[in-house]
Automatic annotation (TrEMBL):
Domain PucR C-terminal helix-turn-helix span(s) in chain numbering: 463-519
Record domain Purine catabolism PurC-like: where: 31-127
Gene3D superfamilies reported in the protein's UniProt record: PucR C-terminal helix-turn-helix domain
PANTHER family: CARBOHYDRATE DIACID REGULATOR, DNA-BINDING TRANSCRIPTIONAL ACTIVATOR ADER
One Pfam family cited in the UniProt record for this chain: HTH_30
Species whose genome carries this gene: Nocardiopsis suaedae
Name listed for the protein in its UniProt record: PucR family transcriptional regulator
Length: 528
């Protein structure tokens, strides 16, 4: 997938099941598309925003030369990615005049076979875009994790710069806060960065100067970003490669800049809290990140004295949302109350929950997992948060490597906490039912029960989330709608669609039990 979210048209043409045939393919730049749009208007251009694969059967198309010229030139001006022409029932073949106009304007033209519904082409475009998005997320996540791991190296700033250059496929230079030339280099940068780069770097070093800039050097595009914050001396990181940075790559650069800024202050262990929190919970937790986690997550309990004077080796994950309808509480206050800097604030209104990693402080949580014991630890912490306006749920104590799993557990538990309107802590002792169920067999059974709802994609994920929230709320339409941020009629429609798609009656408690079993064993359904 390209940086703008588009996919090469060739990938669509390679789908043999669609039966698409390239009629015109511009030779200068391979065409790409972002979505499919069906239109039989004589002039669809005013309704396009760019990047579309415009699909038409030519129902209202005039083959007069002037009309075809206006039609094709309008698509090009609107930024359409390609034109798909469906043969029959109006035309038995793509009009030769249309082929000529598309070739003249450099607009890709594809013949859609009679047996291929336009909706199938649209679904294929959507699937390819989604595949590209997932791959981009994976690539960016790996780059973020590699950068954070670099901080633990013997020469962390050198390792961060080298990792950045490898992740973005570029050369890199780190300039000092004063104009004394490169301090660090990676991937063989040019020996002379030129006068333009030097002038821009000087501007970026100024206390009130810009934070980033772009330049050209030889055949490379050059990207500059200030490192550090005034009034400290500001260094400048300089990258170069033949192609521009897309949005995801700029995010990777931002992570590297933040780490280099902290390292420049001598804070090698102080990775930005929200960033490290997201990397630990959304990625594959890496044991070698433990030295970074412990100092930021608070202090653990000494086994001998019970006092909080030891570096923790186990941690809990918190998910919390606003309790009640009052003003949104401050995420920073919640993090301070927990004694952790590893907090991802979510959204101010609580639609996306606050997530945090906190040091484990075992306590006497009740057997049903509810908060409320008088002992120090997660239950007391959750009660304190509740008094501050946060309704929270906390996972079991885990190692750093297990934090992604604990994140899913906390997300699932938060749904129960919202349904019960009270804080919850995960059970520490083994559940006999869980112990009796093989996880692999349970996952296979869950997918069989959910059928199309177990598929990947936004629609299936939305229906699973709705089903889980509705079951957790015991079928209460209003409370489910409030949890999902949706209209109650939307919830009714989704539940009705689930019943139709699965052929079940959710008024039957047996079916509700089976669906609850299924949705709690699909990993992504517990996300908050």
């Amino acid at each position: 997938m390209h940086g703008d979210g588009s996919v090469p048209l060739k990938r669509l043409l390679d789908r043999r099941d669609l039966g698409l045939r390239a009629v015109v393919l511009p030779g200068d730049e391979p065409p790409s598309v972002r979505w499919a749009a069906v239109s039989e208007l004589r002039d669809p251009a005013p309704y396009l925003i760019g990047g579309e694969l415009v699909l038409t059967a030519g129902v209202n198309m005039s083959t007069a030369p002037d009309d075809l010229e206006a039609y094709v030139s309008g698509l090009v001006r609107a930024g359409a990615g390609a034109l798909g022409f469906g043969v029959t029932p109006v035309f038995d073949e793509v009009p030769a005049e249309l082929v000529e106009r598309c070739a003249a304007h450099g607009l890709a033209l594809v013949e859609v076979a009679r047996s291929t519904p336009f909706v199938a082409v649209g679904r294929a475009v959507g699937a390819l875009v989604e595949e590209g998005r997932v791959e981009e997320v994976r690539r960016v996540s790996e780059a973020h994790r590699a950068l954070v791991r670099s901080v633990t190296a013997a020469a962390p700033d050198e390792r961060v710069l080298a990792t950045l250059a490898g992740a973005l496929g570029c050369w890199a230079v780190l300039l000092d806060g004063q104009d004394v030339g490169p301090r660090l280099t990676a991937a063989s940068p040019p020996r002379d960065l030129g006068a333009e780069v030097a002038e821009l770097a000087e501007r970026l070093r100024r206390p009130r100067g810009p934070r980033s800039a772009k330049a050209a050097l030889g055949g490379d595009q050059v990207f500059l970003h200030a490192v550090g914050e005034p009034p400290r001396e500001q260094g400048v990181v300089v990258l170069g490669r033949p192609t521009r940075l897309d949005m995801a790559e700029r995010a990777v650069l931002g992570t590297a800049v933040a780490l280099l800024g902290l390292l420049s202050r001598g804070a090698s262990a102080a990775v930005p809290g929200p960033l490290l929190c997201r990397l630990l919970l959304d990625g594959q937790g890496a044991p070698d990140l433990a030295p970074l986690v412990a100092p930021l997550a608070g202090r653990g309990l000494s086994p001998e004295s019970g006092s909080a004077d030891t570096a923790p080796d186990t941690f809990r994950v918190l998910h919390a949302v606003r309790a009640g309808r009052g003003p949104a509480p401050a995420a920073a206050d919640a993090a301070a109350a927990l004694g952790t800097e590893l907090a991802d604030p979510g959204t101010p209104g609580g639609d996306v929950p606050l997530r945090a990693v906190v040091a484990d402080r075992a306590d006497g949580a009740s057997s049903d997992g509810s908060a409320g014991s008088d002992g120090e630890g997660p239950t007391e912490a959750l009660d304190a948060l509740y008094r501050r306006g946060w309704l929270g749920a906390m996972s079991r104590a885990v190692t750093v490597a297990e934090l992604p799993r604990a994140d899913g557990e906390a997300a699932a538990l938060l749904i129960r906490a919202r349904a019960a309107a009270r804080p919850l802590v995960a059970r520490e002792r083994e559940d006999p039912l869980e112990a009796a169920i093989d996880p692999a067999a349970a996952g296979k059974a869950a997918r069989a029960l959910l059928g199309p709802l177990a598929e990947e994609g936004e629609s299936s994920a939305m229906l699973r989330e709705t089903l889980r929230a509705w079951l957790a709320r015991n079928g209460n339409w209003d409370r489910t709608a409030a949890d999902l941020g949706a209209h109650r009629n939307s919830v009714r429609y989704r539940i009705g669609r689930i019943e139709r798609d699965l052929g079940i009656d959710l008024s039957d408690p047996e079916q509700r039990m089976r669906m609850w079993f299924a949705v709690t064993r699909i990993p992504d359904t517990g996300r908050g």
